[in-house]
Structure formats: structure tokens, C-alpha cells
Design a protein that fits this description.
Helix content is about 45%, strand content about 5%. α3 links the parallel β2 and β3. The radius of gyration is 23 Å and the shape is elongated.
Amino acid sequence: MFFYAGEKPVGTPGQVQIDRQEREAEAMRETLNRICSRAEESEQNLLIMIDQITEKTRAERLPRMYGHILSRATELQEMKRIIEPPTHVGSVLSANIQFADWIAGATSRAIDYQLFMDSPFDWVPDEIGESMHGGITHKSKLHLFPRSVGDLHNFDVFKKSRPRYPTQMGNSLQVSHPDLMAKIYAKSQSKLKHSK
């Protein structure tokens, strides 16, 4: 099994200036590159099937995918592992696509658990995490928006531990009132002035 996901910055598309089509195209390019790289390592050829969404979406995606595959194939032998252009297939017609939908659903919930502190999917590592162990390629990746925590690779997204939210050791101070925090800060500043 394989996945590639990229975390987007928080905010509306207008606030973070994200072009949705470009974001999808970048994810598709990364996916194709990583799948082809894996196929080259294992000396296997590929037939890529994609869940059919709408005819309009298919017509938009296919030229971008073909262009990417053909432009890289002139330099990288691994892109020639794709033996036919990617095919769109409705999930009602293919058990393979239905299975891929199930995997995508499980993976998206695991990613939600990794990205959001209050994720409702904290059950994923316990319920399905272990069944994914060993079945995900090392080319799989959750690319995190730039921060001090590194990207998550292959099985890492299904682990109970969350690098973005490490388990706290020791005591922590929780402030329930912003006014109280302001008073504490003001008091500390006045003590600093008196100690000089």
C-alpha cells in the first residue's frame, strides 16, 4: 500500500493563497514519482487506476498526468514502469478501487489524528494501526507544512505517538483565564523592576 499527503497551511484558500488545482497536481506528481521509484526498485511494471470522479475532473487531470510522466520519462527510466496511461475507473465497477477507497479512508483518519490535537480519530492507531504495519511502502509520506517536526513516513501515521503533540512529562501550568495570565505576567515584571 502507498500514500502521499501534504499538509496545507491553516486558513481559507484566500488567506493562505493556495491554488487547489496546483496543490492537487503537486500531490499527483509526487505520487507518480514515488510509485515509479518503488516499481523500479522492485523491477515491476505499473498499471495505475484512479477512482472516477467526474468527466470534467478526468479531462483536467489526464493531460497533467500524461505531461508529467512523459517529461520525466526522457530523463528517468523509472517513469517507463507505467505501461499504460492512468485509467479512471468507477469504484462501483472495481473491487480494487473499493479497497483503495477503504485504505484512503483509514489513512486520512490516521493523518487527521496526527495533525489535529482534538482529532476524533484517536481510535485509529488502536483499531487499525497494527493491521497496517508492514503493508505500507517506505515511499509513503505525510509531508508536513514547514516546522521543526519532520515529515512522517510509511507506518508512522498509524502510530499512537504523535510527533506534533509529544506526551508531556512532569507538571504543566494550564491557565483557564487570559486575565489571570496577564496579572501573573504583570506581577513578574514588577518583581523584576524591584530586584534591579
